[in-house]
C-alpha cells in the first residue's frame, strides 16, 4: 500500500483527497519508481482546479512531475537503483502522475538525474525549471549571447521565471525581470535580476512596434504581454513562449517579424524528445546554481497541495513548491 493524492470528478466538480492505494492500481509501464518528491506547476493547478481540461480520465493521481529511485525495471538502459525524473508526457492527463509514493511508467518517459542534482533538486527544478532551460537553449539556438543585450523574463516570480533568471544571470546575461509583485524585487535580485519592472508596463494594449529594449525574452504570460514584448525586441532578437498566465490570445501584428526579423520560438515541455530532455537536464546540472535554486523552494506534504493551488491562483506563490510525498 502507498499514499496518493487522488482526483475524482462528480458532475463538473473535481475533488482531491489523500488515499491509500495498492500497487495493482497503478497503470501499465516497464519501470516502477519509489517516488521521493513531486512539485506544483501552473499546469498542475489548472488540472486540480478544473480550470482547464488537463485530466482526461477519473479517478487519477495528478502531478505532471516526479523524481525518485527505480525499484523494478525491464526497460533497456534503466536499472534498479537509478535516480530518475519524469516530466509531463501523459502524467496527470491519461496516466497516474507524481502525487503518490509509487509510480509505474514507460521507461521512455524517464531521464536519469545527472550529478550533482538530488531527487529533491530535480523537483525544485521540475517542469518549470526544465521549461526554463528549454527556453535558454532556444535563445542560444537563435544566436543570442550576453553581448547582444538584455534578456527580459516575464512572470518573474513564478517557477519558470525564477529559474530562468538564475540560469541566465549565471551565464552572463543582464536580466530584466517583469513582475506584478514589485515588493519582492529583492528576491528577484538575489536570483540575479539586474533590473525589475512592473508587469503593468507590458500587460496593457500597446503599439504594434515600439522602441527596441531587449535582445530576447523568456515569456510565460502570453496575450498582450507577449505582444508588447515582441514589439520592444531588438533587431534579430529571440523571444520564447511557454505559458499563458494572462491568456491564450495573441492580439498583435506581424510588424516585429517583418521589420525587425524577430524570432518567436514556441517551447513545448510535454512531448519534447528524449534528446532535448537529456540536454536540458545536463545543462541544468551544469549551469544552475544550487544555492540560488534553494532560495526558490518551499516544502509541503501531499495534503497541502490544494491550498498551494489556491495560493498560486491568488498570485501568492513565490518560486517553486516541492512536495515531499513521504512526509
Task: List the SSEs and their pairings.
Blueprint: E1 2-10, E2 13-21, E3 31-39, H1 42-49, E4 65-73, E5 83-87, E6 102-105, E7 110-112, H2 119-141, E8 151-153, H3 159-170, E9 175-179, H4 185-191, E10 193-198, H5 200-203, E11 214-219, H6 223-231, E12 233-241, H7 255-260, E13 263-266, H8 274-287, H9 290-295, E14 297-300, H10 305-313, E15 320-324
Parallel strand pairs: 8-9, 8-11, 9-10, 11-12, 12-13, 14-15
Antiparallel strand pairs: 1-2, 3-4, 3-6, 3-15, 4-5, 5-7
Helix pairs in contact: 1-10, 2-3, 2-8
Give me the CATH fold name of the largest domain: Quinone Oxidoreductase, Chain A, domain 1
SS summary, helix count: 10
Broad CATH class of the largest domain: Alpha Beta
Q: DSSP strand (E) fraction?
A: 25-35%
- The stretches of 5 or more residues where confidence is low (pLDDT under 50) are none
CATH architecture of the largest domain: Alpha-Beta Complex
Give the name of the CATH superfamily of the largest domain.
Answer: Medium-chain alcohol dehydrogenases, catalytic domain
Q: What is the tally of beta strands?
A: 15
- N- and C-termini, Cα separation: 15 Å
Share of helix, binned: 25-40%
Tell me the Rg in angstroms. Answer: 19 Å
Output the helix-strand order.
EEEHEEEEHEHEHEHEHEHEHHEHE
Total domain modules = 2
Could you please describe the fold and organization of this structure?
The chain is α/β, with parallel strands linked by helices and 327 residues long. The chain folds into 2 domains: 2-112 and 296-324, Quinone Oxidoreductase, Chain A, domain 1; 128-266, Rossmann fold (3-Layer(aba) Sandwich), CATH 3.40.50.720. The chain has 10 helices and 15 strands. Strands 3, 4, 5, 6, 7, 14 and 15 form a 7-stranded mixed β-sheet that branches. The chain has a 6-stranded parallel β-sheet with strand order 10-9-8-11-12-13, with helices on both faces. Strand 1 (2-10) and strand 2 form a beta hairpin. The longest helix has 23 residues, at 119-141. The chain is globular.
Amino acid at each position: 500500500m502507498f499514499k496518493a493524492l487522488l482526483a475524482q470528478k462528480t458532475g463538473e466538480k473535481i475533488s482531491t483527497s489523500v488515499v491509500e492505494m495498492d500497487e495493482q492500481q497503478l497503470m501499465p509501464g516497464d519501470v516502477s519508481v519509489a517516488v521521493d518528491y513531486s512539485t506544483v506547476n501552473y499546469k498542475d493547478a489548472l488540472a486540480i482546479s478544473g480550470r482547464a481540461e488537463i485530466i482526461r480520465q477519473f479517478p487519477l493521481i495528478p502531478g505532471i512531475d516526479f523524481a525518485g529511485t527505480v525499484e523494478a525495471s525491464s526497460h533497456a538502459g534503466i536499472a534498479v537503483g537509478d535516480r530518475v525524473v519524469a516530466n509531463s508526457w501523459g502524467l496527470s492527463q491519461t496516466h497516474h502522475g507524481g502525487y503518490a509514493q509509487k509510480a509505474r511508467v514507460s521507461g521512455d518517459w524517464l531521464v536519469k538525474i545527472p550529478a550533482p542534482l538530488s531527487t529533491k533538486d530535480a523537483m525544485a527544478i521540475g517542469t518549470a525549471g526544465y521549461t526554463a532551460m528549454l527556453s535558454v537553449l532556444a535563445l542560444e539556438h537563435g544566436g543570442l549571447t550576453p553581448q547582444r543585450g538584455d534578456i527580459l523574463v516575464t512572470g518573474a516570480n513564478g517557477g519558470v521565471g525564477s529559474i530562468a533568471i538564475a540560469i541566465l544571470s549565471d551565464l552572463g546575461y543582464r536580466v530584466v525581470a517583469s513582475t506584478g509583485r514589485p515588493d519582492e524585487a529583492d528576491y528577484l535580485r538575489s536570483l540575479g535580476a539586474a533590473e525589475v519592472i512592473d508587469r503593468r508596463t507590458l500587460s496593457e494594449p500597446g503599439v504594434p512596434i515600439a522602441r527596441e529594449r531587449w535582445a530576447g525574452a523568456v515569456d510565460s504570460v502570453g496575450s498582450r504581454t507577449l505582444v508588447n514584448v515582441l514589439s520592444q525586441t531588438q533587431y534579430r532578437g529571440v523571444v520564447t513562449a511557454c505559458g499563458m498566465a494572462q491568456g491564450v490570445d495573441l492580439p498583435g501584428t506581424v510588424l516585429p517579424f517583418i521589420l525587425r526579423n524577430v524570432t518567436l520560438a514556441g517551447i513545448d515541455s510535454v512531448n519534447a524528445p528524449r534528446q532535448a530532455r537529456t540536454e536540458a537536464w545536463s545543462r541544468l546540472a551544469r549551469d544552475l546554481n544550487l544555492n540560488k535554486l534553494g532560495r526558490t523552494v518551499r516544502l509541503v506534504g501531499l495534503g497541502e497541495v490544494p491550498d498551494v493551488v489556491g495560493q498560486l491562483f491568488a498570485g501568492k506563490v513565490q518560486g517553486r513548491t516541492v512536495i515531499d510525498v513521504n512526509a
